[in-house]
Amino acid sequence: MSGSDQASQDWIASTGEPIRGEIRVPGDKSVSHRAIMLGALADGVSEIDGFLEGEDTRATAAAFAAMGVRIEATGDGRRTVHGVGLHGLEAPAQAIDCGNAGTGMRLLAGLLAGQAFDSKLVGDASLSRRPMRRVTEPLARMGARIDTADGGVPPLRIHGNSALQGIEFNTPIASAQVKSAVLLAGLYARGTTEVREPHPTRDYTERMLSAMGWPIEFSPGFARLQGGGQLKPVRINVPADISSAAFFIVAATVVPGSDLLLRGVGLNPRRTGLLDALRAMGADISVLDPREEGGEPVGDLRIRSAALHGIEVPVELVPDMIDEFPALFVAAAAADGVTRVRGAAELRVKESDRIALMSTGLRSLGIRVEETPDGADIHGGLLQGGEIDSGGDHRIAMSFVVAAQLAKGPVRISDCANVATSFPGFMELATSAGLNVAPAGD
User: What is the model's pTM?
Assistant: First the structure.
């Protein structure tokens, strides 16, 4: 992200132009995290193209550099990872700082549980409030020894030389992070590790393990692997992140006269819930040139503006769009009628309580929203100008930039610095596509 974006905590957004042109959003954060992790554990050199140049993913790269892995930045979005093998990591000299990255911390917990050395994982103020027992408890069942702060939150102190044993784990919640942490620990465990989920979640870890030659069986909601194998180095092309594309998909849908092409978007079937929900609301979204890159489905998305109507979001879509709900709330505010969200209690323990922040923010812009413990009813209406507290949550901040494109007055959004964690260069790309947003005071 540019220096001006990072320095500015507050943004001003207001009605802009129709969203037009052809853009590519940054690489998928989930794939970028995993590419560094598994590349570091491979026997040989892996090349990564499309790596997300965000703070979260750089924190993961820095973590492995601190454990003796040579990672070269060979260009923007490019990394060469000199893998050290499954047992080649070295003890870090100090605590590993995961920054704001919940994915980084939870996956690292599983991976580090199988190491011979002790380690400690810390994070920023937001990450330090996020629940970790969902990961530490199944890892403890495998034999891991992990201490948390009171309440099961970070920092995590992971004790080395634990003899891990494979388990059969039925996850009580649908979480790709929990599933992946258990599978990564399973690489180091004796016997078989098996995970079953109440609803299928994204399968990036499984796909990448398979692409790197690890014997793994997986299908929606299920994964099984044996410990003690070997990872082969590969070339990984990271697709554009659909979570980052979400803001432009919604903007092009709700701003009249828009016609936008988004290039090379990752279309993993466990990530496309937003597209299904928006289409059910009346959105005009086409997939052009569907293809596969590095085991991941990819396509170009063409979005044209359309009149939306409220729906009851099918609960089975919720796990496949959990990160895109802030953007969906904006689409719901622009729709005719009521959009009902249920089964999304996970939103309350993301980087912020996203149900509360989106509901409060939309109300401040004149939209009627009724919260429930696991969702909300959003009544479409006319958006007014106002002031929004993003709570330091990057997705909240970007969602209200989109909402402001329909508002009758300017919208001031506070605490936007964390946008850099997931979407470097958001402001520049947004303004190039026709959105009106600038640092406050400019």
Answer: 0.83
